[in-house]
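lol so apparently i was supposed to do this last week
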Amino acid sequence: MDRQPQRTLSIDIGGSGIKGMVLDETGTPLNERVRVATPQPATPAPVIAAIVELVKGLEFDRVSVGFPGVVRLGITETAVNLHPDWVGFDLAGTLTQQLGKPTRVCNDADMQGLGAIAGRGVELVITLGTGFGSALFLDGRLVPNLEMGHHEFRKGETYEEQLGRVALDLQGKKKWNQRLEKAIASLQHLFNYDCLYIGGGNTDRITFELPANVKIVPNISGILGGIALWRD
Ligand code: BGC
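anyway here it is w/ beta-D-glucopyranose bound
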């Protein structure tokens, strides 16, 4: 018997918004992106309720979720920009039950990377949004949960403290851009990547010319990467 084509509902949980879209098997969007503000405080129950409400009326067969923290086997282990209640929460199991469809969950930067990379050589992804996300790939294979954002970058501060949304708002665009330029140089020396991709909502604040092997990826890659979680 022929297998039915599977429609994937792809969800991106962010510090300020939750976004969703249904994709066909080739990753082509089947609806306009839907979005709702992330409930505050962003504890599991209201976030799950917001997702269930957001996707009402959409038709899909399986679910992929990008989550802003470490995720192992569907369990969320950290969530610095959401709420400590996420530590040890079975997000995949809860959504499978609440949405009635099989659900897979991975880190949001990992999902963004899966939707952006070429699949050749060493590819590094960073995301500039509420937090600082990072993902590393070798020939298209992911090293999951690279948490560079919370490692020291300069002046006793982490990448996230220097380049996250709070820093951008407090320090302003000029200083933030100077820091980002330094971060790119430092990451090139550390990873010797073939390509660095930069995603996330704050990429439109970048004002300097990027090196040839650094590319800005559209925000939508975060959602398009959802299809990759179901590749065998
Ligand atoms: C989290 C990462 C996440 C990034 C972007 C960081 O604070 O620790 O897991 O990828 O924010 O959302």
